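For consistency, the fold was encoded as tokens, as this record shows:
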Amino acid sequence: MEAIGCIGDERIVIKDENRAVVYSSEGKRAYLVVFNPDKNKIYSDDNASKFHHYIGYPIIAFFMKNGIIDYDKKLAETLKGINWHKLNLDFKRDYPKVESYVKELCEKKGMKKDFVDREIERTMKKLEELKLEY
């Protein structure tokens, strides 16, 4: 959800077809994303990707913005303006609670949780199909 919100907030700047800079929700950090399509290798210096070895939101936002992974524009607008960093701190990095809270916000804005869940599933499936090395 943070990747789609990042697009809604216009926090991603595509430098070229293989590079982007993604800004954090509070605007204090910038993350570099680099894609090598010949080797199907992706890199980002965000904490999730760099230290925890899973694909973080900057990488997902990069693929969405470049049209490799589809995203729902209305959902991007719905997720606009969320300070993910603050939520993660408020919920003591309990990410399932953050996710549940954000889905409640979506419901209040008229976006059904079931739809959000399907979008998350679809995105995760597409990521798996890409078989990225990172």
